[in-house]
Amino acid sequence: MDNAQTSPQAPHFRYYDIVMAAFVAILLLSNIIGAAKLSTVAGYTFGAGILFFPVSYVIGDILTEVYGYARARRVIWTGFAALIFMAFMSYVVVAMPPAESWNGQEAYEQVFGSTWRIVLASIIAFWAGEFVNSFVLAKMKVWTKGKALWSRTIGSTIFGQGVDSLIFYPIAFLGIWETQDVLTVIVTNWLLKVVWEAVLTPVTYLVVGKLKRAEGVEVFDTDTDFSPFASSKP
Fold first, then answer.
1. pTM for this one?
2. What is the spatial distance between Cα 63 and Cα 138, in angstroms, rounded to a whole number?
3. What is the rounded average pLDDT for all residues in the chain?
4. What is the per-residue pLDDT across 110-132, written as a single tens digit (0 to 9) for each?
5. Burial (CB count within 10 angstroms: exposed 0-12, middle 13-18, buried 19+), residue 2
6. CA–CA distances in Å: residue 75 to residues 24, 167, 230
């Protein structure tokens, strides 16, 4: 058993599907809307999506903390499939010849016509980073016996976002940007994402507490198969 439920039947969760939908929606929107724009604040230039993409990690933490690694794994694979479809749809729509009366093709290409390197980097980095994030949080929950939630939400983000940044930026920009710039962006964006996770810790506590009370469950992944490719429980 991977949870504290005593019933032999799998529990029915009221809010699991809603949390899954929120995770996938934020993941896709942060990639569609935020990724295409660079913003400069106080002399620092960054991708606008960094303000919202880390929220998907917060929801990933909530999923693992409340529902366990196996159910979080299902959500990660759902997000992964959605990212692939989004990339395919963007490619097809951008490649279709525009009508003569429509003059938005150039703007469309600028916003949605990401290079194959950026698309590939985004998909791989998300997959690896989210699984690392969920694995670390699930393991830390067992080690801490469910105490000090802040330590595992921030700790899992340090590792998960670290893997995400280490994969995304070299694949997407190494050889295009100067190597020093790639390394600088890896470190600064990783730090910003971790800080953002820490800032949102009170929100995480609030949502986790409400969901656990509503679902009546406390999940510990003591005997869970942590392979990303294992069959996930519904």
1. 0.89
2. 10
3. 88
4. 878 777 888 899 999 999 999 99
5. middle
6. 8, 21, 13
